[in-house]
């Protein structure tokens, strides 16, 4: 993914001259912005694998939290 933004501050002609002696208006602030996003259709199961790894890590953290709570309750009792 990439993005860009450009602001031109010097006066620029924004429309071509179609008649001799008739000049178009000048604009002193011209903006240009673009945004591109690329997402592969098939990535070999990498996204699903990363998601499964994240879920396993989350479950491990929950189990560790339960173990800590139980250990604390045993110490108090």
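^ Assign residues to that structure.
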């Amino acid at each position: 993914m990439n993005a860009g933004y450009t602001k031109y501050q010097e006066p620029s002609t924004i429309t071509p001259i179609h008649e001799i002696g008739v000049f178009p208006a000048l604009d002193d602030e011209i903006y240009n912005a673009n945004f591109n996003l690329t997402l592969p259709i098939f990535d070999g199961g990498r996204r699903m694998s990363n998601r499964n790894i994240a879920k396993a890590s989350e479950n491990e953290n929950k189990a560790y939290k339960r173990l800590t709570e139980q250990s604390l309750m045993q110490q108090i009792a």
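The longest helix spans residues 46-76.
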